[in-house]
Amino acid sequence: MTDWSSAGFETRAIHAGQEPDPRTGAVVPPVYQVSTYAQDGVGGLREGYEYSRSGNPTRHALEECLASLEHGARGLAFASGLAAEDTLLRAVTKPGDHAIIGNDAYGGTYRLFARVAAPWGLEHTPVDLTDLDAVRAAVRPGVTRIVWAETPTNPLLTVVDIAALAEIAHESGAILVVDNTFASPYLQQPLLLGADVVVHSTTKYLGGHSDVIGGGLVVSDGELGEQLAYHQNAMGSVPGPWDSWLVLRGIKTLGVRMDRHCANARDIVDVLTRHSRVVEVLYPGLPGHRGYDVAQRQMRNFGGMVSFRVAGGVDAAVDLCGRTRVFTLGESLGGVESLIEHPGRMTHASAAGSPLEVPDDLVRLSVGIESSADLVADLEEALE
Ligand SMILES: *Cc1c(COP(=O)(O)O)cnc(C)c1O
Q: What is the mean pLDDT of the chain?
């Protein structure tokens, strides 16, 4: 196995965990569509594989690649982002523990904490993670096990200071978990900033083609990695080999796709900020954005997600979402095709009435990698 740890991002994306197949020389890891493995005598495993819930070569290729991209000691792949989150919570918390989550966390993450983990016994407090004093005040030393951050957040694109949060978490014996789905490891590597665990919905930028659901965890500590691997097998929410292969294939082009996502988003932000029907544009790359300075420090570029508030309130926002032609109306994000959605009624409907409710005139764009001029023209027409 070649050591790719000092290679550049794109080289690791294409080669880490993906040596040519030793038997055939196949340059891409084959889809090992198999559940069990022949043993040479009882317990005589050939390459350590005995059953595909515990381990599968295609999944392992993805897991090694994820670890390499995030500069972690161990990567683990899951059937979805939420499966990864659930496994993590079971592995590192127990009933009676406490967690701090961002007050604009991804709706599904909030639902997991509020409706699944809370009845099981894990308490949580939603906090504005940009307010470090508020985070310090919410931490219960010895009881708070997790500080859970997203940056940039969904859908308000709030940026939080990963290094500062890591320090606060570690001071009181908690770990910092960063959901890095929006930035992707190309734009931001939380483990290098002090985070303990990175969470991914590989459904989004890593997969990149809106054709697979998947999740991942990457950790800097090998022992924690072992514990998570134990839970991965014990809880069983693993991705199949074909889904693992699709994510791995998406990852190979992550760098070039992210460059184009960012460039197209910038063109759209330029148009929206000047538009008379747009009340406010939320994008971490705008110097007026609250998180601009931190984003400049901890990100390579500002990403492909853009949110904005439309003049005329909820009706105007909902109407706009139905008028675009290149932007497809739909949930999810991070694919090559551009998507538009109304968070209040779609992705974040489950947060209605909670502290995580989003403004109802908000529209969220996942800017794809189509021709920028077509995207801009589409939005301008829809806004007329
Ligand atoms: C989509 C998403 C998730 C959940 O991932 P699934 O693959 O849909 O289970 C978690 N966090 C963020 C930020 C997401 O966008």
A: 96
Residue 6, burial from CB neighbour count under 10 angstroms (0-12, 13-18, 19+): exposed
**Annotation says 252 is catalytic:** no
Picking from 259, 253, 261, 283, the residue whose alpha carbon sits closest to that of residue 270 is: 283
| Known catalytic membership, residue 106 | yes
Task: Reply yes or no on whether 319 is catalytic.
Answer: no
Q: Is this model's pTM higher than 0.85 or not? A: yes
Domain boundary among 231, 251, 271: 251
Separation between Cα atoms, residue 15 and residue 68, nearest integer Å: 10
One domain for residues 346 and 364: yes
* pLDDT: which is higher, 353 or 280: 280
The first and second tokens of residue 39, run together, are 């043993």
Cα atoms found within 13 Å of the Cα of residue 116, Cβ hemisphere only: 13
Residue 357 — pLDDT band, cuts 50, 70, 90? Answer: confident
Give the tokens for residue 75: 């990567």
Mind listing the pLDDT tens digit for each residue in 127-149?
A: 999 999 999 999 999 999 999 99
Cβ(307)–Cβ(366) under 8 Å? no
CB 179 within 8 Å of CB 199: yes
Residues 131 and 267 in one domain: no
Structural domain range at position 269: 255-383
Order of strands across the sheet with 328-329? Answer: 278-282, 305-310, 362-366, 339-341, 328-329
Q: Name the one residue in this structure whose structure tokens are 């800017």.
A: 367
Whether the pLDDT of residue 227 is over 80: the answer is: yes
Q: Is 213 in the pocket of ligand 1 (CB under 6 A)?
A: yes
The best mutation among 101, 204, 366 to test binding of ligand 1, ranked by most ligand atoms within 8 Å of the C-beta, falls on 204
Q: What is the pLDDT of residues 18-56, one digit of tens each?
A: 999 988 999 999 999 999 999 999 989 988 999 999 999
Q: What is the pLDDT of residue 105?
A: 87
